[in-house]
Every structure is written in C-alpha cells, then in structure tokens.
C-alpha cells in the first residue's frame, strides 16, 4: 500500500512539473492503449468466432463456383477485413499525434520561459526552470507514447493483413 | 598799421571792459590801468584758491590718519578675536570630549536608533499596513535624519514612537482589519470604500483585490483580477463574521498580484500571433466547418446505407440502393455486362463519399507549416530588434519571440484536431466505399439467391 502511495506521489509530481499538455498526452496515450488492447483482444478472441462463422457458412453452401458464389465470398472477406482493420487508422492517427502534442508542450513551455524573462529579466535561471521542465517533459512523454504505440500498431496491421489472406485461403473455390 | 593796432586794442579793451569793469576805456593809459587792476584781481583770486587747496589737503591728511588708526584698531581686534577663537576651539574640543565621555553607550543607542528608524521607514513605505496608518514612514524618516545630525538628541517620546510603530506593524500583520479608505476604481473614480486588510499580505474591497501604490500612498483596484474562484474568498472575507473563510493569499504582499497584470490572457496571446496567427485560425475554422458538414453528410448516408443493407427493396436515396438498382434495371444482362454496369455505378458514387476529405487533410498539413512561417517571421522581427537595440534588453525581443512561439502553437492547435477528424472521417467514408466496391456485387448475389 505504501509503495503504491509513493508511486502515486511520484506520478503526481511528474504530472505537475510537466504542465497541462502532459495531462493531454497522458489522456491520449491512455486512449491509445485502450484501443490497442481492445484490438489485441479482438485479434486473439473475437475474430476467431467471426472466422469460424464465415468458414462454416461457406462450407454449408453447395455452390462454390458460380459468379454469385464468388461475389459472396469476396463480400465476406471484405466484411472480415473491415472488422479487422477497424480503429487501426484511428490508432495510427493517435500515434502520429503523440509527438505533435509533445511539440505543443515544448512551445507552450518556451512561451512560459519567455514570459518569465520578460517580467524578471534573463538573470534568474531558477524562475525559468519551471517553464523549461514544462517544455522538455511533454516532448519526452510524446516520444515515449509514440514509440510504445508504434510497435503495437505495426503488429496489428501485419496481423490483420495475414488474417485476411488466411481467410481467403480457407474459403475454397471449386471449379 | 597803427590804426590796425589801435583797432585790436580797442577790441581787446572792449572785451576786458565787458568782463571786469563797466567803465569804458577811453585811452591807452586807462587801458593799462585797467589791465593792472585785472592782474591784481587775478592774483588775489589765485591766493585765495591756494589757501583753499591747502586747507583741503590738511583735511585729507587728517582723514587718512583717522583711517589708519581705524585700521590698526581693527587689526588689533581681529587678532584678539582669533586668539579667542583658538581658545574657544580648545574649549569646544574639551567639551565635546566631555560630552562623548558622558554620553558613552547612549551614543551607540542613537546610532542604532537611526539605523532602525531608517529600516523601518523603508519597510513602512512598502507595507500594506501603511494604507491604514498613513504617514508612518515620514515620521521615521524625520527621526532618522534627526539622529544623523549630532546636534540634536532624541527625546524619550520619539524613542518610544519607534518602538510603538514597530510593535504596531508586528501586531497588525497578524490581524484581519477593516477600515474605510478612498479607493481608485478601474474607471478612475475615487470612491470611499470599506477595505479589508489581511495581515500585511492583501487588501480587499467589494470582493476585489486592491494594490497599494507606494509612490502616492493610495489604494487602487487591480486592473486585472485573479480568477473567479479566488475572488469568491475575497468576497467572503468581507461579509463573513468570525467564521473560517477560505482566502487566496499573496505571500509577497502584492507583487505576484502586480505581475498578474502583466501576464497576457488568452485573447492577448492570440493577438501576439499577428497576421499569420489569424490566418492559421481562419484556415482552421474553415477546416472545422467543412469537417462538420462532412460529418453530418456521412452520418446520413451511412445510416441510409445500413438500413438498405437490411431491406430487400433497392431505394433510390442512398449510394448502395442506386448501385443495387443497376441489377433491377438490367434483369436480362449477362454477368460481364452487369459487372461493367456495376463498376460504372460505383465510380459515380465514390467521389461523393470522399468529397472534401482531401481538403481537410491539406489543412492538417498546412497548419503546422504556416506555424513555421510565423515562427520564422517572428525570428526575423527578433533579429531586427537585435540589430537595432542589441541583445541587452530581453524585453525588446519579446514581441518577435512571442509571435514565433504563438504561431507555432496555433499551427499545432489547428493541426492536431484536424488530423484526428480527418482520420475518423476517412475511415467512415472508406468503410462505405468498401461496402460499395467489394460487397455490392455480393449483396446483389445474396439477394438473388434468397429470392430464388
């Protein structure tokens, strides 16, 4: 319990030195990872059911060779592909936004530094320190967020592509 | 010849006669006599003058002697006074020494008193408590100056005054006091108001923070007040009677609140961005408007397409229905012709679904670029300021720097939501297009199989 409390204190101190933009980045990374976890869950669990359903419906058909059958097969593959690729583009946008938000934090932090300079002159480095930490911490957090997301994103994209190809193979066509 | 002599003589005698005697000279003898008489007269006159001059000379000599005597007397007096002065100097030195000896530790006391009075004067002149008790710094200043001159001694009353003033400053800094004072409002009017003083930290009137202008010793309403939640405490402390009140305190005694006036608010920040900043905001606004229109459009089309997916009758009000209608319109067409007709119908629908999306994408890319443009123009301004004024004063460069930074911020503020909006819209329109491109034929096939 004490260890948890200490951790909470450390996180709170970090968030306070990072400023408001860091809170935004934290929210963004939180949403990003919720979407990533949901996608991973779907890839390992939900999609299996969908695939089984599609394959069994296809196997139940007598007709596997007519024009209609081909179109129906293509439609099923497309539906599965849409399901697999759902939220992936959104995830890509979130990953791309992380460094942008970090940059926003940098610039707002610099504005604070220059505000301090305009009021108290360039003499006191200590009064500028708060602005400097607000400028640097969000950049770092944005980078960390983007890096953490990009691995998951790449895996999800490759997995979706592979699953679609596998599905196409499972839906056999007889001539 | 003789005639001419006689003539001139006559003229001369006539002159002489006219000057001295009225008697007319009738002959040369007479003339001679007259001349003699005149000469005698003249010498008499000269003698008289001589005597007069002599008398005057004696007079001058006497005066000179008198002046010399006077001078000698004065020299004697001065010598006497000088010796007396020297004697007196010795005496005063002795007396001073005696005074110093007798004052002893008292002299140190007066030195301390002077120092304390000077310090207290500086403290009182900036203290908020002076708003309630005016004129304390003047009294302290007078006392310090008086102590500086050794000719005057402080009376016990004056010494006690310092003690009392310091004690009062200490006591009052621990009190929340209410008093009436004239306050200069933001409009410039001077109004008598009930002012609450919180220790030596803050002054509040009518729920607003006041500043104490030390130069004039007047109270003025701060032209920019802190945010609403702090003002509530300021209002409560005035109306509250005795109970505990939450109050936002400025521990620096007003200097943080004073800096608050200098810190720009959101509107001023945006204004610092200049023309480039406004252009970025305008572009962002256009992007948002287009995104809103596309959101509504895609939501309507998507809802209609999904209801079309559930129904068997092809409707004319949505892209999928229109594509499916191709089959109904050409019941006799063979597979190849039908496929061509379908793809033609789909091609007609796709641009309507992805309309304006590229524009939003362009805005999301252009906004940070425009921010960069603003950054560079701001830096140009900064360097111009440096060439004109040098790097000595950072305040002169602040305008250009804040323009540079604010435009970057505005560019990012526009770009970040635009990127998100574009992705969401693009995913939606792409899903609809997938349904048209890859599934329309399948949907038609499923429908015909079901019907068969």
Question: What topology emerges from the helices and strands here?
Answer:
The complex is a heterodimer of chains A (175) and B (452).
Chain A: H1 2-18, H2 20-60, H3 67-85, H4 88-120, H5 125-170
Helix pairs in contact in A: 2-3, 2-4, 2-5, 3-5, 4-5
Chain B: H1 2-19, H2 28-103, H3 105-126, H4 136-148, H5 156-172, E1 176-184, E2 190-198, E3 202-205, E4 208-213, E5 218-221, H6 228-239, H7 255-262, H8 266-272, H9 274-310, H10 319-329, H11 335-353, H12 357-389, H13 394-451
Helix pairs in contact in B: 3-4, 3-5, 9-12, 9-13, 10-11, 10-13, 11-13, 12-13
Explain this structure to me?
- Chain B: One of its GO terms (biological process) is protein import.
- Chain B: It is found in: Cell membrane; Membrane.
- Chain B: One of its GO terms (cellular component) is plasma membrane.
- Chain B: This is Energy transducer TonB.
- Chain B: It is a multi-pass membrane protein.
- The complex is a heterodimer of chains A (175) and B (452).
- Chain A is mainly alpha-helical.
- Chain A has one domain.
- Helix content of chain A is 89%, strand content 0%.
- Chain A has 5 helices and no strands.
- In chain A, helix 2 runs parallel beside helix 5 and helix 4 runs antiparallel to helix 5.
- The longest helix of chain A is centred in the C-terminal third of the chain and has 46 residues.
- Chain A starts with a helix and ends in a 5-residue tail after the last helix.
- The mean pLDDT of chain A is 87.
- In chain B, helix 3 runs parallel beside helix 5, helix 9 packs antiparallel against helix 12 and helix 11 packs antiparallel against helix 13.
- Chain B is α+β, with helices and mostly antiparallel strands.
- Chain B starts with a helix and ends with a helix.
- The model of chain B has no long low-confidence stretch (mean pLDDT 83).
- Chain B has a domain of 186 residues.
- Chain B has a 5-stranded mixed β-barrel with strand order 1-2-3-4-5.
- At the A-B interface, helix 3 and helix 4 of A face helix 13 of B.
